[in-house]
Amino acid sequence: MQLKEETLLGKSIEELTNWVELQGQPNYRGKQLHQWLYRKGIRSFTDISVFPKSWRKDLEHYPIGRSVIHDLVVAPDKTRKYLLSLKDGSIIETVGIPTPKRLTVCVSSQVGCPMSCDFCATGKGTFKRNLTCGEIIDQILTVQEDFQRRVSHVVFMGMGEPLLNMEEVIKAIKIINQDIGIGQRSLTVSTVGIPKKILEFANYKLQITFAVSLHASNQILREQLIPTSKSYPLSTLLSDCKKYVEITKRRLTFEYILLEKINDSLEQAVELAKLLKGFQNHVNLIPYNPIEEVKYQRSSSQRIKTFSYQLEKYGIPASIRYSRGLETHAACGQLRASHNT
Ligand code: SAH
């Protein structure tokens, strides 16, 4: 389910050209509208100064599809975490993460998430609906506007499971790439794994980075952390990952949250290394950001280093990914949960 209302954001250049023609305007206005929507990031039709005044007036209330910043938290490292309010009152989270060379946006793909992963704040809340392509694009434009700087990278690691909203996510990737002008290799889609969906996604043959949230070295433990994995055995998930690599000719990354004394022992590192042997894929180790609802703890830095070292020893390249802006409810869905929305 998603919002049905038509907005300009989310339309391709061809769709915008058809739309301006339907309004009785010459077709070159489609290209202009496209530029002002995606490159200049306008918030209202009246902002398009190259359009005739009377037409701008007629359409001044036409829905562009931009959200409103409901709240903003800024971390000492300048990471900015937004709560965005959508047309239907839904609230989603978006994060802007700056470094001298990059501006990365972490976007949501759904309002809430139906996957219920035990360690995830979004999973503890309620799932409402899929986001439209326009609502995904708006998040990038909002961060760009707020930072007054072009976004260089986009990661689908905010609220929601992107592969459960594949059609809109694929449309958004195309617009991010072709209309906003961010290279596919600078985009990452992260999934916890949905039966059949990884192969469906592979067949789009995108050049993006694909990340799979693994978080456990065996099926029993994975089911404890990710209840939905009961219907998607680890062996099937990994064989789908292999096929993804064959089809797209792109490597994928495994994400592994480190939870103290749950999945971070030496034996589990060895088990994980054996599981991933021959994959030639990278493992991103993510120190867990504690959430209120559950008692898991972040692994100590010593245990994290040892786990990483053990993987490397067994030939699995690993890196530790500290999330930015920890002080400001950095983990997925935490800010929204703290607002009780
Ligand atoms: N549903 C997708 C994308 C959203 S979550 C997925 O599961 O991959 C993006 C990443 O943040 C995932 O790897 C997820 O496991 C991780 N994450 C969720 N809660 C977290 C927490 N409390 N601490 C650290 N990482 C977390």
TrEMBL record:
<dbReference type="Pfam" id="PF21016">
    <property type="entry name" value="RlmN_N"/>
</dbReference>
<feature type="active site" description="S-methylcysteine intermediate">
    <location>
        <position position="332"/>
    </location>
</feature>
<feature type="binding site">
    <location>
        <position position="117"/>
    </location>
    <ligand>
        <name>[4Fe-4S] cluster</name>
    </ligand>
</feature>
<keyword id="KW-0949">S-adenosyl-L-methionine</keyword>
<dbReference type="InterPro" id="IPR058240">
    <property type="entry name" value="rSAM_sf"/>
</dbReference>
<keyword id="KW-0479">Metal-binding</keyword>
<dbReference type="InterPro" id="IPR007197">
    <property type="entry name" value="rSAM"/>
</dbReference>
<keyword id="KW-0408">Iron</keyword>
<dbReference type="Pfam" id="PF04055">
    <property type="entry name" value="Radical_SAM"/>
</dbReference>
<keyword id="KW-1015">Disulfide bond</keyword>
<feature type="binding site">
    <location>
        <position position="289"/>
    </location>
    <ligand>
        <name>S-adenosyl-L-methionine</name>
    </ligand>
</feature>
<dbReference type="GO" id="GO:0032259">
    <property type="term" value="P:methylation"/>
</dbReference>
<comment type="function">
    <text>Specifically methylates position 2 of adenine 2503 in 23S rRNA and position 2 of adenine 37 in tRNAs.</text>
</comment>
<dbReference type="InterPro" id="IPR013785">
    <property type="entry name" value="Aldolase_TIM"/>
</dbReference>
<protein>
    <recommendedName>
        <fullName>Probable dual-specificity RNA methyltransferase RlmN</fullName>
        <ecNumber>2.1.1.192</ecNumber>
    </recommendedName>
</protein>
<keyword id="KW-0808">Transferase</keyword>
<feature type="binding site">
    <location>
        <begin position="160"/>
        <end position="161"/>
    </location>
    <ligand>
        <name>S-adenosyl-L-methionine</name>
    </ligand>
</feature>
<keyword id="KW-0489">Methyltransferase</keyword>
<feature type="active site" description="Proton acceptor">
    <location>
        <position position="93"/>
    </location>
</feature>
<comment type="similarity">
    <text>Belongs to the radical SAM superfamily. RlmN family.</text>
</comment>
<feature type="binding site">
    <location>
        <position position="190"/>
    </location>
    <ligand>
        <name>S-adenosyl-L-methionine</name>
    </ligand>
</feature>
<feature type="domain" description="Radical SAM core">
    <location>
        <begin position="99"/>
        <end position="327"/>
    </location>
</feature>
<keyword id="KW-0004">4Fe-4S</keyword>
<keyword id="KW-0698">rRNA processing</keyword>
<dbReference type="InterPro" id="IPR048641">
    <property type="entry name" value="RlmN_N"/>
</dbReference>
<dbReference type="InterPro" id="IPR004383">
    <property type="entry name" value="rRNA_lsu_MTrfase_RlmN/Cfr"/>
</dbReference>
<keyword id="KW-0819">tRNA processing</keyword>
<feature type="binding site">
    <location>
        <begin position="213"/>
        <end position="215"/>
    </location>
    <ligand>
        <name>S-adenosyl-L-methionine</name>
    </ligand>
</feature>
<keyword id="KW-0411">Iron-sulfur</keyword>
<dbReference type="InterPro" id="IPR040072">
    <property type="entry name" value="Methyltransferase_A"/>
</dbReference>
<feature type="binding site">
    <location>
        <position position="113"/>
    </location>
    <ligand>
        <name>[4Fe-4S] cluster</name>
    </ligand>
</feature>
<feature type="binding site">
    <location>
        <position position="120"/>
    </location>
    <ligand>
        <name>[4Fe-4S] cluster</name>
    </ligand>
</feature>
<keyword id="KW-0963">Cytoplasm</keyword>
<dbReference type="GO" id="GO:0008168">
    <property type="term" value="F:methyltransferase activity"/>
</dbReference>
<dbReference type="InterPro" id="IPR027492">
    <property type="entry name" value="RNA_MTrfase_RlmN"/>
</dbReference>
